[in-house]
Amino acid sequence: MAQPQLAKHQEVGHKSLLQSDALYQYILETSVYPREPQSMKELREVTAKHPWNLMTTSADEGQFLNLLLKLINAKNTMEIGVYTGYSLLSTALALPDDGKILALDINRENYEIGLPIIEKAGVAHKIDFREGPALPLLDQMVDDVNFHGSFDFIFVDADKDNYLNYHKRLIDLVKIGGVIGYDNTLWNGSLVAPPDAPLRKYVRYYRDFVLELNKALAIDPRVEICQLPVGDGITLCRRIS
User: Burial level of 38, CB count in 10 A (0-12/13-18/19+)?
Assistant: First the structure.
């Protein structure tokens, strides 16, 4: 007898580690979508039409980031990996009018998909977008003591093979008491998959880098950490020394 198929997520490019697709849809429809700002809804829908939509931050994670930034009273932030700007818009909406986001991405074209919506939302003045690899700029900032401890919050959602390289630099740039958020730290649930599991090539390639990051963060005495199964997994690191 054929087994009934579970309903799949309706959100294009969804990321959820919940066992039940129906439960995830319940969260979205009950707590996320009714509270989602119109500008974020518009950007989410535009991004859903893009062929790389899987790269976007999920709506529930966008809501989480927005509330987190308000809870810690963030004002000066950084985002590494922007894509079309859904998480960037979530951040910009949470910051005070004089708040700032240093946004780094190798692809301005993707950012410009969301830019008109960000501008219409009235928060584009908070964003300093820089196109290019993040590491050279981070090295320049680390060499300048004026940037040390200057960021309240940093969100990383970029090349997983450089997460540890980012962490080595960002730990000096975030203030003591500030937070670094690393996205995708549960990596499609593949971290506990058996060696012969049929994984997509990109999932298998980056899995070891994510595992390495998680091990390193778990024993880093400079931070307190909390790994949450929101979206594709996010690890929050609060700098304590």
Answer: exposed
Give dist(CA 131, CA 129) in Å, integer.
7
Q: Is the Cβ–Cβ distance between 106 and 133 less than 8 Å?
A: yes
Provide the pairing of β-strand 234-239 with 174-183: antiparallel
pLDDT at residue 191, rounded to an integer:
94
Task: Identify the segments of the chain with pLDDT beneath 70.
Answer: 1-15
Instruction: Characterize 90-100 residue by residue with b for buried, 16 or more Cβ atoms within 10 angstroms of its Cβ, and e for exposed.
Output: bbbbbbeeebb
Determine the pLDDT at residue 17: 76
* pLDDT tens per residue across span 158-171: 999 999 999 999 99
pLDDT number for residue 6: 38
Q: Which two tokens stand for residue 70?
A: 């308000």
CB count in 10 Å sphere of residue 64: 20
Q: What pLDDT was estimated at residue 54?
A: 85
* Measured distance CA(92)–CA(15) in Å, rounded: 22
d(CA 228, CA 65): 12
pLDDT of residue 3: 42
The pair of three-digit structure tokens given for residue 132, joined into one six-digit string: 């290019």
Length of the chain as a residue count = 241
Q: Of all residues in the chain, what percent are helix, strand and coil, respectively (each to 5)? A: 50, 20, 35
The contacts of residue 23 (CB under 8 Å, 6+ apart) are: none
Alpha-carbon torsion 172, 142, 66, 184, what sign?
negative
Give the span between the Cα atoms of 223 and 177, in whole angstroms: 9
pLDDT score recorded for residue 15: 61
